[in-house]
Amino acid sequence: MLTRRIIGLCLRASLALAVPIMFWNALTIITGSTHPIIVVISESMSPTFNRGDILFLWNRQPWIQVGEIPVCWFKGLPLPMVHRAVRTVVLDTMRQGIMTKGDNNVVDDTLLYPAGKEFLGREEIIGVVKGSVPWLGWVAILLQDYPQIMQLGGGALLLGIALFA
């Protein structure tokens, strides 16, 4: 009887882990973005977006238009950058160059780009913002800033599963 209970507990824990992973993978396929949902962590796009807002990305359009808000992620940097496209150029017949700027910043982002780059390439963009939910991302920010919360929550979840299994 104890073995059956342990197996049931393991199956429920596996399901609790598998469902969010499957949901995330489905979103990446549908949106074409490696990160279809992100959280704003700076004030550079205020008042359009504030720290803690959740953004929903779409990455299935071939060209970025001026005024859209692409999210770029440079190789080697830990976090993406969410800024508005303020200028676009055609670099050659197959490539677009995009210059961005935060709504709350005074100058464009050329100083933030990797050395020698004047424009972003389309390949550096992980998506364009198509929607947002204000403030809900504070949960993720708190969990990142205070990992002890996550550890306590994980322990409480396991205890709850064990007690109610």
TrEMBL record:
GO terms for cellular component: signal peptidase complex. It is a single-pass type II membrane protein. CDD domains: S26_SPase_I. Its EC number is 3.4.21.89. Its main location: endoplasmic reticulum. Keywords: Endoplasmic reticulum, Hydrolase, Membrane, Protease, Signal-anchor, Transmembrane, Transmembrane helix. Coiled coil: none annotated. InterPro entries: LexA/Signal_pep-like_sf (IPR036286), Peptidase_S26 (IPR019533), Peptidase_S26B (IPR001733). It catalyses: Cleavage of hydrophobic, N-terminal signal or leader sequences from secreted and periplasmic proteins. It comes from the Eukaryota. One of its GO terms (molecular function) is signal peptidase activity. Catalytic component of the signal peptidase complex (SPC) which catalyzes the cleavage of N-terminal signal sequences from nascent proteins as they are translocated into the lumen of the endoplasmic reticulum. Specifically cleaves N-terminal signal peptides that contain a hydrophobic alpha-helix (h-region) shorter than 18-20 amino acids. Component of the signal peptidase complex (SPC) composed of a catalytic subunit SEC11 and three accessory subunits SPC1, SPC2 and SPC3. The complex induces a local thinning of the ER membrane which is used to measure the length of the signal peptide (SP) h-region of protein substrates. This ensures the selectivity of the complex towards h-regions shorter than 18-20 amino acids. SPC associates with the translocon complex. NCBIfam families: sigpep_I_arch. This is Signal peptidase complex catalytic subunit SEC11. It comes from Aspergillus campestris (strain IBT 28561). The lineage of its organism: Eukaryota, Fungi, Dikarya, Ascomycota, Pezizomycotina.
